[in-house]
Amino acid sequence: MTQITLQTNKLANFINGEWVEVNEATAVVNPATGETVVQVPLSGSTDVDEAVAAAKKAQKEWALVPAPQRAEVLYQVGYLLKERKERMAQLLTQENGKVIEEARGEVQEGIDMAFYMAGEGRRLFGQTTPAELKDKFAMSQRCPVGVVGIITPWNFPIAIATWKSFPAIVAGNAVVWKPATETPIMAYELAKIFEEAGLPKGVLNVVYGRGSTVGDAMVQHEGIRVISFTGSGDTGRNIASECGKQLKKVSLEMGGKNAIIVMDDADIDLAVEGILWSAFGTSGQRCTACSRVIVHEKVKTSLEERLLAAMEKLSIGNGLDESIKVGPIINQAGMDKINSYMEIGKNEGAKLLAGGYEYTEDVDQGGNYFAPTLFTDVTADMRIAQEEIFGPVVSLIPVKSFEEAIDVNNGVEYGLSSSIYTSDVNRVFKAQRDLDTGIVYVNAGTSGAEIHLPFGGTKGTGNGHRDSGVQALDVFTEWKAIYVDYSGKLQRAQIDVE
Fold first, then answer.
1. So which residues are the catalytic ones?
2. Residue 244: in which H helix or E strand, if any?
3. Which of 141, 356, 368, 384 is the most exposed place for a label (fewest CB within 10 A)?
4. DSSP letters along 64-113, please?
5. Sign of torsion over alpha carbons 391, 3, 312, 294
6. What number of other Cβ atoms are within 10 A of residue 5's Cβ?
7. What's the pLDDT score for residue 364?
8. Measuring CA to CA, how many Å separate 444 from each of 99, 274, 275, 391?
C-alpha cells in the first residue's frame, strides 16, 4: 500500500478553535521501526488554564443548543470518519504499531460511536412519574455537568477518546482532552474533523503533554467537574483520591487480568482461535487481552498442542503489512516489563513452552517486538497469573472442575472481561451469573466489545462507571428532579397526603 503521512512535522494544541504552538516538544516514535513520526508538544499548566477557560465559556452556549442539533455535529463527524477511515487507520498503525486490520477496526469503533451517540441527541431520556399530591407534575431530566476532562491511553488512541468525548459533547458539555504522548496523531486528526464538522470553538480542546504536568493540572483544576480516565491502576487511584477531595466526578478504567475458561466439552479448535485473537491481537496490549487460559485437565494436553501449532503460524512485524498478525510493543519500557515477567514466571516454577524472548527475525531492527509467549503448569497464585503484564504472554492454568475454573477466574484483583468455552447450556447460564467481570463472553474470546453495550469492569478494574453504551451518559450528566405544582396552593410532600 502507499503509506499515508502527516502534513506537519510538529503538532499543536487545539484551544478555542485555534491551533496553538508550544515551544517544548518530544518525538513520537513508530514502535515498528524506531523512526520519528512527528513532534508532540509538552504543554504546561498555563495551557490547561487557557483550554479550561475556553471550554467554560463555550459550554454555556453549547448547553443551550437543542440536543438534536448538537447531535447533527456528531453525525457529520461520523461521516467524515467514515470517509477518512483508511487514512486514520494507517496513521494509527504508524504511531501505535497495531496491525492495519485492527487499526481499521478501531477507527470503525469511532464511526459507530459517532452515529450511536448522535442518536442519543433525540433521546437523553429522563422520566415522568406520578406525583403523590393532586394537581402536581413530577419528572427528572439529564443535565450537562459543565467542563469534562478526558485522559486517554496509547493503546486505543481513537476508540477510547470517542467513547468519552462523544457522549460528553452530545449531552451539552465541553471537553478538555489530554491524549497519550505516545499516540497524539489521532487527537490531531479528530480535532480537525470536529472543526470541519462545525463544532463551535471551545467545545473541544486538545492539550498535549505528560501526565505529571497536563494530567495533574486537569485533575486539580477547579473548572473541570468530571475526569474520565483510562490507564494504570496506580495513576487511577491517585486521580480518584484527588477528585474525591474536590467532590469532582471521576470515571476510571484501569485494566484487567482476563481469562478464557476452556471446559472439557469445549470445541477446542474454536477455543484456540479465540485465544489467539484475544491474547496476541494488539500484541497483548489491550485491557481486555486474554492473559490466562483456565483449562480443564482432561483437555489440557490437546489444547496445548493445538495452541502451540497455531502460534507457530503467527506472522510478526510492521503492522502496515497486510499479512502481519502481531505488531510491535509500544516502547522499550513495555519491552522491559515483559522481559521481567519472563524471569518471574520461570522462578515461580512455570514451564515456558513458547516465546519468552525479544523477536528480531525479519523485522526492522529499530522496532520493539516480543515473541508470542506461552507458559503452562501455572498455578493461580503465581504473579504471572495475578499481575497485568500487557504483552503477548499467556499462562495456562489447569483445573479439575467448572467450579474451580470460576474460582480461579474470580481470584484476581481485576474484573474486566472473561470468557468460557463449553457446549453445556447449564454451565453457560451459571458462568454468566458467577463470573465477576463487567463483560462475559460465551464461546468467544475476551475482546470484541460492541459500542452500544456498557464497557468497564468490577473490582480493581474501575470505580463502577462505564464507557460506551447509553450508560456512558451517566458519567457526563447530572440528574435534576423537577416538580410543577399547579394546584394554586401550598402542598407539602409526605405531610399533606390524605
1. 253, 287
2. helix 233-246
3. 141
4. TS-HHHHHHHHHHHHHHHHHTHHHHHHHHHHHH---HHHHHHHHHHHHHH
5. positive
6. 11
7. 87
8. 21, 6, 9, 20
DSSP states along 377-443: S--TTSGGGTS---SSEEEEEEESSHHHHHHHHHSSSEESEEEEE-S-HHHHHHHHHH--SSEEEES
Contact indicator for 345, 365 with CB cutoff of 8 Å:
no
- Three-state DSSP at 203 gives coil
Phi/psi at 178 (5° precision): -110, 105
User: For the segment 130-170, what is each residue's pLDDT rounded down to a tens digit?
Assistant: 999 999 999 999 999 999 999 999 999 999 999 999 999 99
Which domains are assigned to the chain? Answer: 13-254 (3.40.605.10), 258-442 (3.40.309.10)
Q: Band of the pLDDT at 1, cuts 50, 70, 90?
A: low
Q: Please give the grid coordinates belonging to residue 357.
A: 524472548
Quickly count: other Cβ atoms within 10 Å of residue 431's Cβ.
23
CA separation, residue 420 to residues 145, 260, 393, 405, 448 (Å): 39, 6, 19, 9, 14
**CA separation for the pair 321, 316 (Å, rounded):** 10
The bridge status of strand 136-144 relative to strand 127-130 is antiparallel
pLDDT in tens, 433-461: 999 999 999 999 999 999 999 999 999 99
pLDDT band at residue 427 using 50, 70 and 90 as cut-offs? very high
312: cell is: 507457530
Q: Which residue has the cell 416538580?
A: 483
What's the length of the chain? 498
